């Protein structure tokens, strides 16, 4: 759709949504009344800035059904995201919302190169988590053959992939790494694996992981992004043609990126907090929802021809950002540094502790199989001093790189292959913050 037509559609849908929530959701009527805004004041997306943000706290305060714009009986589905603290965040769908959920996921799959008739190995978790069912409905809508394997039971997953020969896999990037390692252990080369493309998401990942996963599974890895509050997976998707940012399905979810401190909108290319406004949601529409995810937008024309705006990779969540001795640190920044070091794998873990008043960061970094074998060999042949030197030098190199790039002193611990925690199907937590802040 040409951008002018898209804009006209967004303006109309936005006005309808604001009018709808003003009349159906007491929370929004009160919020808009408080800032003196009436639905007729919101005629175009340029008026969005007049509206306050909706934060996650509102969903907690009105748990479970207080933000519904429809009678509870009209709900077809309820999902929830696991709250790490307290109550989960509940998200509700009417039949029409489930229809849009299927549509945006079918669109995402097609954008990644999936087609009718292909087999989809869906290893996102089924249940309250939106990943499994969202992709499932999308695959069916596109006319694919869906294998609802869900997360976990890695041995069985590998067997099913070998037997059914799916072309498409959907799972978290960390679980794709786990599967890749399992194939390798079984001595199966990437050329022998039928998979052609992966839609990986639900957690932050980097080019390092993309390269590793593509090499081990023999796929083109694409990014799929989404969050429960907006719909689940299928909010944005990288196109197979360019794989340069993820197209946001902005005819349903209107995006903005704003300054984390001031809330002011940022221009293309500038990183800030990603905000979404529902344009077609029935059960629980949200205005200017503060995702907490950090990224940037670009309206540059994409090589694939799609006109939908693109977002960059998610650097992390504003609330996942570690502040260590005053320095802001995202785990993905450490990952980007490790990428340049051939002796180590993309598997790492960051442990933060506080010794009296001082924060200490330990980065556990896994040696590659090859380097580790050399080390072991030298130890056996009694060249322990050489090993000591080599490992000391490697550790120093990584510590210096991190200090020079991030301005943060850390301790690097080199660990043997396969000793850093792996994904067992769901999202992987790469940070252990033991500070009890
Ligand atoms: O993770 C929905 C989803 C399922 C997306 C399957 C993609 C694939 P939640 O559990 O509510 O929903 O978690 C949403 O996960 O705010 C981001 O912080 C993070 N996230 C999701 N996709 C990506 C991605 C699902 N591609 C939260 N890259 C979001 C980085 C992502 N982070």
Give an overview in words.
- With 437 residues, this protein is α/β, with parallel strands linked by helices.
- 33% of the residues lie in helices and 24% in strands.
- The protein has 11 helices and 21 strands.
- The chain has helices at 3-24, 26-34, 56-61, 95-111, 130-142, 154-164, 173-185, 207-217, 331-339, 369-380, 384-406; strands at 77-81, 89-93, 119-122, 145-147, 168-171, 197-201, 220-227, 232-238, 246-248, 253-258, 272-278, 289-295, 297-298, 310-311, 316-317, 322-324, 327-329, 344-355, 358-367, 411-415, 431-433.
- Strands 4-3-5-6-7-8-9-14-13 form a 9-stranded mixed sheet. Strands 10-11-12-15 form a 4-stranded antiparallel sheet.
- Strand 5, helix 7 (173-185) and strand 6 (197-201) form a beta-alpha-beta unit.
- Helix 4 (95-111) packs across helix 5 and helix 9 (331-339) packs across helix 11 (384-406).
- It is globular and about 80 Å long.
- The structure holds 5'-O-[hydroxy(phenylacetyl)phosphoryl]adenosine.
- 5'-O-[hydroxy(phenylacetyl)phosphoryl]adenosine is lined by residues 81, 124, 130-131, 201-204, 223-228, 232-233, 291, 293, 314, 317.
């Amino acid at each position: 759709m040409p951008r002018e037509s898209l804009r006209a559609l967004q303006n109309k849908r936005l006005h309808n949504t604001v009018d709808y929530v003003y009349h159906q959701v007491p929370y929004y009527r009160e919020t808009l009344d408080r800032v003196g805004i009436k639905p007729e004041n919101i005629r175009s997306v340029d008026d969005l800035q007049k509206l306050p943000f909706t934060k996650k706290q509102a969903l907690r305060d009105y748990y479970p059904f207080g933000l519904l714009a429809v009678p509870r009986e009209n709900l077809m589905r309820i999902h929830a995201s696991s709250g790490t603290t307290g109550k989960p965040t509940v998200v509700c769908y009417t039949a029409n919302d489930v229809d849009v959920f299927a549509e945006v996921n079918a669109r995402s799959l097609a954008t990644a190169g999936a087609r009718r008739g292909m087999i989809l190995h869906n290893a996102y978790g089924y249940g309250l988590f939106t990943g499994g069912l969202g992709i499932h409905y999308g695959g069916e809508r596109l006319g694919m053959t869906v294998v609802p394997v869900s997360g976990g039971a890695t041995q069985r997953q590998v067997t099913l992939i070998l037997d059914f020969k799916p072309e498409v896999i959907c799972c978290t990037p960390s679980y794709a790494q786990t599967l890749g390692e399992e194939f390798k252990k079984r001595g199966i080369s990437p050329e022998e694996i039928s998979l052609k493309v992966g839609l990986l998401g639900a957690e932050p990942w980097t080019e390092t992981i993309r390269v590793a996963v593509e090499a081990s599974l023999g796929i083109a890895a694409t990014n799929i992004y989404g969050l429960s509050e907006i719909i689940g997976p299928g909010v944005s998707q990288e196109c197979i043609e360019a794989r340069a940012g993820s197209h946001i399905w902005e005819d349903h979810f209107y995006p903005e990126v704003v300054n984390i401190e001031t809330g002011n909108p940022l221009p293309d290319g500038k990183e800030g907090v990603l905000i979404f406004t529902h344009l077609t949601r029935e059960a629980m529409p949200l205005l200017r929802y503060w995702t907490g995810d950090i990224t940037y937008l670009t309206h540059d024309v994409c090589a694939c021809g799609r006109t939908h705006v693109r977002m960059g990779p998610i650097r992390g969540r504003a609330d996942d950002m570690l502040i260590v001795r005053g320095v802001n640190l995202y785990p993905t920044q450490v990952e980007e540094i490790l990428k340049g070091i051939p002796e180590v794998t993309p598997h790492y873990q960051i442990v933060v502790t506080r010794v009296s008043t001082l924060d200490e960061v330990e980065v556990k970094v896994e040696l590659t199989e090859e380097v580790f074998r050399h080390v072991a060999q030298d130890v056996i042949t009694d060249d322990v001093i050489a090993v000591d030197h080599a490992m000391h030098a490697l550790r120093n190199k990584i510590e210096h790189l991190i200090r020079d790039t991030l301005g943060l002193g850390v301790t690097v611990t080199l660990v043997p292959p396969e000793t850093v925690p792996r994904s067992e199907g769901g999202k992987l937590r790469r940070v252990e913050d033991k500070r009890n802040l």
